[in-house]
Write a structure and sequence with these properties.
1 helix, mainly beta
Length: about 150
């Protein structure tokens, strides 16, 4: 599988609506999922667009493959922005569960490989501005969708 040019990748697009005060435009492709809780995903961001404000509830490893990924770390208690890192192609990161942040693609977007290890069936939580959970990404839901597509 070529991560840069593979017509077999099934992309799922996410965009924001009027309830968000930042532009949301990103896509995800599931590369692999295993019964032991490991998930490999490819994400791509449109230029200068965000994914949803979120908390990783899984152990997460990522590598930027192309473009820039701007990561804004946020204090989970106060909602205060703590720092911003610009990760460029080749940058690697590993985070334990609990990491709260925003991510956006740089001027040319971003392509990032994520490897997740679900903890208690949870992968991530999308958050409202005040930190309340809007939606949870769960391992069993992702596995069920994959199995349904495989027939």
């Amino acid at each position: 599988m070529n991560l840069f040019d593979d017509e077999n990748l099934k992309w799922r697009r996410f965009v924001g609506d009027d309830s968000f005060d930042y532009p949301i435009d990103y896509e995800a492709a599931l590369l692999s999922i295993r019964d032991d809780g490991h998930v490999d995903l490819l994400y791509r961001w449109a230029p200068n667009s965000y994914c949803h404000f979120h908390r990783h509830t899984a152990e997460t490893t990522s590598v930027v493959l192309a473009g820039e990924l701007h990561v804004i770390d946020v204090d989970a208690e106060t909602g205060e922005e703590l720092s911003t890192k610009i990760r460029k192609a080749g940058d690697y990161a590993h985070k334990e569960p609990g990491d709260v942040h925003m991510e956006r693609g740089g001027p040319e977007g971003a392509l990032v490989l994520f490897k997740l290890k679900a903890i208690d069936n949870s992968l991530a939580e999308s958050l409202a501005k005040d930190g309340t959970v809007i939606e949870e990404s769960r391992f069993d839901d992702m596995l069920a969708r994959r199995r349904a597509r495989q027939g």
